User: What shape does this take?
Amino acid sequence: MSGKPKITITLVGRKGERGCHRGHRVGDSFDFDTERGKLCPMAMHVAFPYVDILRYGGSVPGSGDPNVCLFCCPDVDVINVFRIERNAG
Assistant: This one.
């Protein structure tokens, strides 16, 4: 990869019974560099280590795709499932 890769965080599923207290809906997508302030701080807290791994050339074990990983928000009432994608910069 040349330059800094683009990181996109997309809400891809929901496992909890209640709606997101931040108002996120499945399909919402955020550019890490320009829109991370729009993402729920609890979800961002979980996402950040994965973003760092992908941004600096690593891959998340078990993901199956070296440019993608999934994580869940820590709100047990909501349990939003997010996908982080690394794209060439």
User: Anything to note?
Assistant: The chain has one domain: 6-87. The chain has a mean pLDDT of 92. Helices lie at 32-35, 41-55.
